Amino acid sequence: MRAWRTLSLQARQMLAASLALVAFLGLTGLALDRAFVATAQNALRERLANLANSYIRDSELDRTRDFISPEIPPDSRLLTPRSGLYATVRGEGLRWESASSLGRSLPPVEFLKPGERRFEGPLRIVDASGMENSVYGYSIGVIWVPADDFPLTFSVFEDAQQIENQIRIYRAALWGNLLLAALLLTMVQLLVLRWSLLPLRNVERELGRVRQGESQRLSGRHPRELESITHAINALIESERTHLDRSRNTLSDLAHSLKTPLAVLRSRLDADASHAELRSEVAAQVQRMNEIVTYQLTRAARTGHALYSAPIEIEPRAEEIVAGLEKVYAGRGVFCEFDIDPAARFHGELGDLQELLGNLLENAFKWADKRVLLTVSVEPAPPERRAGVNFIVDDDGPGIPAERVDRLLQRGVRGDERVQGHGVGLAIVQDIVTAYLGELRVTRAPELGGARFSVRIPPAY
């Protein structure tokens, strides 16, 4: 069973097509064989019928009811013993056989009613030497009027060897040609399969070049059926490369940030500081290093996303965040309204969704006068992609001038130094949006008059 499961696609298709080809040609051969046998038997029947009719026409019965055969029979083989063609006449007290039946024991003839005709065969006969043979027979029942309406049965027999030879020759030619056709079709089938599977081999070769570092991604020149696969592979490659670069950058930033406190400790050791001074300095630098490590780990954890994630329902998460913010800003009486499409889903990590909504809503609560509006809608996508989602957060605050938008999205920059914060919330949002290949726009809210933050997460594979 395992061997069947590990068969290559080409082997599977070749096996299935070969079985179908063998079945088709086999059934075709059987149908043609049966048709030829039926045609050959019908031709023999017509020939024997014509021969029997000619014999009846040229024969006579005398007054004593003795059968008188024609001097020149319809077929000269009837005069040659064991020629393979035989004739008999049967009646009450009458039995006549052609000269060709000498030494042959012909099959018994059943008396037929006048006008009745019968074709039989192959029938087994035994000659004088005991050798078995087979014949086909055609019989006609007649009434001989000149002989006082005397009933007779005319029978003509022919060896089955002739028709069997025809059938054998035909079958040899038929199955030989079908076998040749099967070989030719198998070769054509193999070529067609190799051609049809060539795009998969190209994908395999390109993946090999990516593994060896010769290429950065798969090319876009692939059949339509493979586009979703190649796009997904490229997205996975980009995601892994981005994660790797992010990990390297995080480690580099961490190492660079730790150089300063380590250098301070080294300088204090070299300066022969007192025990109390050294203890105080070590405590301060350890606290600083702990803050640096915590910040870098938090930063690394909240950036990036898994390529394939289960869809997350948005409304319950938004309600949890807004419930907490309304408690924090209860003294100002700020409340939030929802306009969320029930079908909207976030295809990513839960932490990213919480960071995204949390920072956007907290920023809106911080600057709003009384109202905040969260709008979530679905961005339709083709069947082979996951639907996108759009987030819009409006407030009725003072808004943000267009010339200050780019600076406001920089890390560490705050909209107003008098307002508490660290200036990293919107930068975190920007990092998350970028990781999801999305877009962040800051404009004026048309209804509430304050700032509008629009986030578009596009459809993805």
TrEMBL record:
One of its GO terms (molecular function) is phosphorelay sensor kinase activity. Gene3D superfamilies: 1.10.287.130, Histidine kinase-like ATPase, C-terminal domain (3.30.565.10). It is found in: Membrane. It comes from the Bacteria. The chain crosses the membrane at residues 172-193. GO terms for cellular component: plasma membrane. Keywords: ATP-binding, Kinase, Membrane, Nucleotide-binding, Phosphoprotein, Transferase, Transmembrane, Transmembrane helix, Two-component regulatory system. Its EC number is 2.7.13.3. The keyword Lipid metabolism does not apply. It catalyses: ATP + protein L-histidine = ADP + protein N-phospho-L-histidine. PROSITE patterns: HAMP, HIS_KIN. It is an enzyme of class 2 (transferase). InterPro entries: HAMP_dom, HATPase_C_sf, HATPase_dom, His_kinase_dom, HisK_dim/P_dom, PhoQ/CarS-like_HATPase, Sig_transdc_His_kin-like_C, TCS_sensor_his_kinase. The keyword Transferase applies. Residues 194-245 form the HAMP domain. Its main location: membrane. Residues 253-461 form the Histidine kinase domain. SUPFAM superfamilies: ATPase domain of HSP90 chaperone/DNA topoisomerase II/histidine kinase (SSF55874). This is histidine kinase.
